[in-house]
Amino acid sequence: MFGLAFLVVCGLYAWLAFFVAKHVGKGTGRKLAKYIALAVFALIPTWDLIPGQLYHEQLCKTEGGVKVFKTIEIDRAYFLPSGQPDEKKIREQLLDWVGEPDRDFSTLFHITKNQDLLVVKHTGERLGTATDFWYYGGWFQVSLLHLGGSTICPQYPNFSVSSSLLRGVVRPQADTQLGGQ
């Protein structure tokens, strides 16, 4: 039912665009005015796509990603046999992620900023931040999908941005040998 309503609205919009362009062209006697009117109707639902994408890319390059303030060594018991940090165990016992998405970061271009701060539970010491940006598209897309799809950056191929932060902050403690050997 939604699809049919959408097609009807699009058809009415196209009819209105051609109707207005025809009357603008007749009223001014110039074809250029007619084409400008059609261009305006084409740009109304899409005007914010290109500036929004450019702004999102700029934010990703300048503010997005992982920033490590301090690296800590923790016991090997907090690592999986593969050598990767055991995120669940570390979250439960050692470190906290603080932060929540800022959905009002850019209401004009529909961009959400998600910044997590990694802190030591017992001391509150800041170890690093992980920042990513979610771009939901132009106003027309957001109106139709109600924030359904998004483009997230920066992209990490195997992990989320917060997991990448954890991998940059924690290291296994070096083995100590007894007797100075």
Annotation keywords:
alpha+beta; 8 strands; 6 helices; disordered C terminus; six-stranded antiparallel β-sheet; 181 residues
Question: What's the short story on this structure?
Answer:
The protein has 181 residues and is α+β, with helices and mostly antiparallel strands. 43% of the residues lie in helices and 23% in strands.
Written account of the structure:
The chain is an alpha+beta fold and 181 residues long. 43% of the residues lie in helices and 23% in strands. The protein is built from six helices and eight strands, in the order H-H-H-E-E-H-E-E-E-E-H-E-H-E. The protein has helices spanning 2-28, 31-43, 49-62, 87-93, 139-145, 161-169, and strands at 65-68, 72-74, 95-98, 102-106, 111-120, 126-135, 151-153, 170-172. The strands form two sheets. Strands 1, 3, 4, 5, 6 and 7 form a six-stranded antiparallel sheet that branches. A two-stranded parallel sheet has the order 2-8. Strand 5 (111-120) and strand 6 form a beta hairpin. Helix 1 (2-28) runs antiparallel to helix 2. The longest helix has 27 residues, at 2-28. The chain is elongated.
